[in-house]
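To fix ideas at the outset, we first show an illustrative case, written as a sequence plus integers encoding its fold:
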Amino acid sequence: YEQKQKPADERLLEKKAEAPVKPKATTTGVSVIGIRDVLLRLAKCCTPLPGDEIIGIVTKGHGISIHRANCPNVINRPDLKQVPVEWNKGSTATYSVEIEVRAFDRVGIIKDILNQIAEAKTNLREASVKTKSAGIATARLVVDIRDLKHLQDIMSRIRHNIADVIDVYRPRPA
């Protein structure tokens, strides 16, 4: 009795079929507790970050929307179906987050703010500045952040390393 050799591609398929199935990483960095393979999206109204307390809201046709637990769009809304969600451990995803900086307007203030962001090795996605007649500039910045600690570090750098900064904050959801 002679055993015939299987084609290489057939052996590869058999080997793949025997391999353990790994849970699929989500691009949101969030998992629904007890449910796999569900469509998730991060809410744009409150831009949750790892470290924020979060909740999942079931939407019609859009899967589960992940909100910060203190988002005004979901607080005190018993009509919304909530599901338990959690941040994935060890995620390397980055999240675009808006911060605002209020400072006394002067030549170079924006350069100083952007230098602090660059020194933190953080990507800047958007920037806009408006100055009121009282000499107060408000910079709206969108930066790529890993987690809440990273965001707090950047805000602290700006607040403590630039003398003319009045306040740095993450705007509250509308």
